[in-house]
């Protein structure tokens, strides 16, 4: 900084403790309009002296000359630097070199209320010696040249710094800046010559450029430290000129890097070095980082390097992508792409400028992913899904997530794959037995892919659900039927495949498939039929599991869906209580025989519809039926009982040569076996006449007794099928290691007729629901067009239905006078009250 102007006269000043110090402070005149301002100025001077004295050393301060002016008088400074000031209240103070004390008289009194002014003035600047600027610049030039040549500087840097300050203080800063700028420019011009005629390989050329750049930076740092005062005063205050550092950068950019030959060779060398690294060779990343930082500091990084770099990157990866996509399998190609992307991230981390990040990564992703997106998905996705390549699928998702349309295309192909595979499972009749299990396994696989590989992306989850719902309903009604039968197989007694916890998880998975089914009423019909068999024959594996499944169905479809199923359970519980009372009633009735009879009372509205069947029962059974009928009607008058022999089952005691056995059989099987108590041999026709069992049912029953594993009857001639001329005899030589023997209950096996009957019943129920929905809508709306009526029907009906079927039901209601057509507009319907 510049030294302040001051007088060189020294004076002795006495401090408050009696010591004398030298006062060589330059005088400063203080002008003030108020006594308070004067007082502050005087106290400031006094405190400075005290502070110096307290530190046992004297630091020179400016001598202050204080002028007190008013309208009439001007108090002058006395020889001992004391001044008196009178305020408006005539209080007197004296200012001495060591402070202010009361009691000193004013040198000149002033009038009360007179304005006063303190003025502080510096003394005049000292003049520089002649030729000072020329001599000083010579020394500075010598120092700068020495720095540029990496030689020792003869003059002290501190002296040079002070000299720069003196020149700036005396308004010579503009000339000094121009001289320095010219000197730097000459040096840089000389440096460019070594690059123009250099005959060397690209690596040596880059090293030479890096050495030149590093030397230039170090030189400018040293030069700036000498001319720091110039940089912080004149340069800072002048907007039109560059700072010393920026001026050095501008010179380097102007004369070296902006030279077309030098710039081209430098950028070519950098690109070759990066190309070598991409080819797997080791390179000097420090050299790359230094030179790219140089281009960035010189503000030519983008125009000189980045544009060409991105072009070369695009060309490299475009050709590489085309070549590898044809020669590599998709998993290997994806691994290569991931490797390339990571390599480019490393280059960004080590030496490329951060501004290159976005265009570079976009270029790599475009050439290696976007351009080959259809091939990657069509060639590789199905293969990866078929072989359950979880890691590769995750990599595919992460890579395609980088490009704009990547996830959309992946989701679309994923959806198509599910529909294609699912259609094969559902529409193949030969796979009906394994259909549900295959659907469950397929759903688990796709869920695993969606959750682990696709990061539980909601878009993929929804696409998976949509695909399952689409393909599972391509075969109307059959999946619903098979799912109901699958549940039956898992809930039936004897299923030892799973624990209760595993069974619960399986039921949850089945409910997921159930949600996809449109014809839920088909499921309900078959499920209710199978549930009835399990409950009536006592084949249910677990009451808790049954009720858990019922609860899931209720939660999914509502109370109306499960009301009949719940009624079936209620009937079974009421029947148990009823049989306790019946046993007490039997004790009083004392019937003939020792038959233990158990009866289940079924509410017709809850249970499946069974065809009534009349058979010839033994007299003992008929007697017990009549006793129970009287017992029940005595408790519930007005009700009607209809016996269902096809649902009954019995336990018979049988005597064989090998010992006595108990046979667990159906009621039809029991009726046939009881005939052999009187005669050992019967023909098919004789058995039919004696039992009145329907022909097809009788043939299946005899087949189970004479042709199955437990052959308690013999058939002649032998064979698997029962023919009209066959005769049957009691097999007294029957042997079995078990005491209680279960003979397969043929009537529990579902026949084609039963399936057709169930489906027909579902169809009839749907017609009733359609009729009810039409009447309900028309009763509310009174008048509707055909299209609006169909639209509302589709909203209310929970099963798939064709427009032609709806039109038939509308015509039926018109014939039955529930609706009528408008006389003028046949497309308009009116409700008939």
UniProtKB/TrEMBL annotation:
Protein name stated in the entry: Cullin-4B
Pathway named in the protein's UniProt entry: Protein modification; protein ubiquitination
Keyword GTP-binding: no
Keywords: Cell cycle, Cytoplasm, DNA damage, DNA repair, Isopeptide bond, Nucleus, Phosphoprotein, Ubl conjugation, Ubl conjugation pathway
Principal location class: cytoplasm
Any one GO biological process: ubiquitin-dependent protein catabolic process
Pfam family for this entry, one: Cullin_AB
SUPFAM superfamilies linked to this entry: Cullin homology domain, Cullin repeat-like, Winged helix' DNA-binding domain
Family matches, as PROSITE patterns: CULLIN_1, CULLIN_2
Compartments, as annotated in UniProt: Cytoplasm; Nucleus
Cullin family profile domain segment(s): 478-706
GO molecular function: ubiquitin protein ligase binding
Keyword field contains Cell membrane: no
Family: Belongs to the cullin family.
